[in-house]
Amino acid sequence: MFDEPKAFSGFSVDDLDKARDFYSGVLGLDITEENGVLKLHIAENHEIIIDLKPDHVPSPTTILNFPVENIDAVVEELWGRGVQFDFYYDNQDEKGISRGDGGPDVAWFRDPAGNILSVIEVKN
Q: Residue 88: inside a domain, yes or no?
């Protein structure tokens, strides 16, 4: 039934122009638009749909996690681009990076629609 799945994920925003500017301009990701829907192109032909929903309510959980090799460098660059980080835990440093606690280093931030994103350090 799903031998060659072509499933994809999606999420909503309340303003496509702000979403396009943020995901393309701030995060530097490849975005196209088709029939009033944004397509976020990630890793080898994978797409994530960003759809306009005027009564959008941000997800209470993280919708996208970006694995990075050097979280300190990425967080510093995002701070420089105006991204504000969320603080949830006592083990987060002044940059917003949660360190240790048995898991990977992670930092959370939001898109203009309030959706939660994160960068997570991965060791290769």
A: yes
pTM for the model stands at 0.90
- Transcribe 12-80 into DSSP letters: EES-HHHHHIIIIIIT--EEEEETTEEEEEETTTEEEEEEE-TT----SSEEEEEEES-HHHHHHHHHH
Residue 4 is assigned to a structural domain of this protein? no
- Which residues, other chains included, contact 49 with Cβ-Cβ below 8 Å and sequence gap of 6+? 8, 9, 10, 11, 37, 38, 39, 40
From residue 46, alpha-carbon distances to 8, 10, 40, 53, 92 in Å are 7, 11, 8, 22, 32
Domain count for the chain: 1
Q: Looking at this protein, which amino acid is placed at residue 93?
A: D
- As averages over each run of 10 residues, the pLDDT of the chain (124 residues) reads 73 96 96 94 87 95 95 96 93 90 90 97 84
**What is the domain range of residue 20?**
9-121
Per-residue confidence (pLDDT) for residue 123, from 0 to 100: 81
Among the listed residues 116, 8, 11, the one whose alpha carbon sits nearest the alpha carbon of residue 56: 11
